[in-house]
Write a structure and sequence with these properties.
Elements: H1 6-19, E1 26-29, H2 33-42, E2 47-50, H3 52-98, H4 118-131, H5 139-157, H6 162-169, H7 179-214, H8 227-239, H9 244-254, H10 267-270, H11 280-291, H12 293-296, H13 299-302, H14 312-315, H15 318-329, H16 337-348
Parallel strand pairs: 1-2
């Protein structure tokens, strides 16, 4: 039920009560404060139940914000470090295209790049060792200095730089050192520096993509966990142990809908605590759940008294919303009212009343 404010909700509900004058045992809705207040005013004898779908959606969306921040710190920051270094090398390439005899003072200054990733630290170290060599004009001095620098990098970083150094050495002149050979190796050096950044960045991006897919496992409730998924989830949490806290949080809230009615007391919501390390969105979600604790577990009082009620009414009525909306989404302006009523009866499998007329 879409409502703009309390007055709209109150008028709509009053109209429904006038046309169907009875009090339902339980009325299911989402977290809209205006709607909850209007339901309590118009139907004071009915219990108000927050749909389980929206309860889980509230906490899970808050968790997803934290996970997004975690992913940014884990991958995006590191990827951006390498991208920034690559952009600087692009600028150098453009300058050397116009003038291959640049002096050290004519080169752009490399901005301070945070090196939180070992790949960035290696790339920066390689670049710092080779940066001044790009400006050496005399061919013999250029190749001598480059050879010393490459050997030093190999001793320091080992196999990580084997491919990079081999590709540079393969471009060394076989006979004599010339200006033309220096210029060729100079250009190759810049290209290979970009490739080195890419070689460290590519696995990071692939890992970030896999991480985003596996994040969905955190939100699966026990009944949805297959043996295969269980293995993936266990491995994922071993790699990222700090995320266990969020896994336990979504399981704790989901426990409300797996527990027998008589044992539901809302302690799953009581144990949720706001933390300064959480995102504002997650802290707000926790606050919302606590504020509406009574509405979240209202079914625990109603269902034991009325066992004929469907269990789905306490967990997820969103599927009913989807079925109700479906006929209206398919060219409503071109359909007769009786056709829409028949579609609703078919999809909902129950009685449909028309209050429009």
């Amino acid at each position: 039920m879409g409502v703009e404010n309390y007055d709209n909700a109150y008028r709509a509900l009053s109209y429904v009560k006038e046309k169907a004058p009875y009090d339902p045992y339980i009325i299911v809705c989402d977290f809209k404060p205006a709607l909850i207040a209007a339901i309590k005013a118009v139907f004071p004898n009915s219990a108000v139940q927050i749909d389980g779908f929206h309860v889980m959606q509230e906490v899970n969306n808050g968790i997803k914000r934290d996970l997004k921040n975690y992913r940014v710190n884990l991958y995006k920051v590191k990827v951006n470090e390498l991208l920034e270094l690559r952009s600087f090398i692009n600028a150098l390439q453009e300058q050397f295209k116009n003038n291959d005899n640049l002096s050290f003072n004519q080169l752009p200054v490399l901005k301070s790049i945070q090196s939180s990733y070992y790949g960035t630290r290696i790339c920066k170290d390689v670049f710092n060792k080779l940066f001044f060599i790009l400006t050496i004009q005399e061919p013999y001095s250029f190749f001598k200095a480059l050879d010393i620098a490459l050997n030093g990098l190999l001793r320091k970083h080992g196999e990580v730089l084997n491919e990079f150094c081999d590709s540079i050495y393969s471009k060394f002149p076989k006979r004599k050192f010339t200006i033309k050979g220096r210029t060729r190796v100079q250009g190759e050096l810049l290209k290979k520096l970009k490739t080195l950044c890419l070689n460290f960045r590519k696995p990071l991006e692939e890992e970030a993509t896999t991480f985003s897919k596996e994040l969905n496992f955190l939100f699966l409730q026990p009944e949805k966990i297959t043996p295969e998924i269980a293995v993936h989830l266990e491995k994922f949490l071993e790699q990222h142990p700090t995320l266990n806290e969020y896994r336990e949080m979504t399981l704790m809230v989901g426990e409300i809908y797996r527990t027998p009615y008589e044992l539901v007391d809302g302690h799953q919501i009581d144990v949720l605590m706001q933390k300064p390390t959480y995102s504002d969105k997650l802290n707000t979600a926790i606050s919302t759940l606590k504020r509406h604790k009574n509405e979240n577990i209202a079914f625990s009082d109603v269902f034991p008294k009325h066992p004929e009620l469907s269990k789905a009414c306490r967990t997820n009525t969103e599927w009913i919303n989807i079925k109700v909306k479906a006929p209206f989404k398919t060219s409503f302006n071109r359909q007769r009212l009786d056709f829409i009523e028949n579609r609703l009866k078919l999809q909902l499998g129950g009685e449909v009343r028309n209050f429009i007329n």
